[in-house]
Hints:
The protein is elongated. It is an all-alpha fold. It starts with a helix and ends in a 13-residue tail after the last helix. 63% of the residues lie in helices and 0% in strands. The chain has helices at residues 3-13, 17-34, 43-57. It has 3 helices and no strands.
Amino acid sequence: MSEQTRELFEIVDGLPAREKQLICGYIRQAVFEWDPDFTKLTPAEAEILRQSDLELERGEVVSIDDINWD
């Protein structure tokens, strides 16, 4: 999470409930306008996916049979 996002959350957290609800509505609207079907990746998500693809290419995977589920 970026420092800017943390700061925003701290600011919003200090607001009364009604104002928090309004802010939440604005954020939802902005996200839906940016990505209505939630298919875009954030930069952080894209980096995680890139790293996992590299690990898979290098064979750095764990077999499901090697996991102790108990």
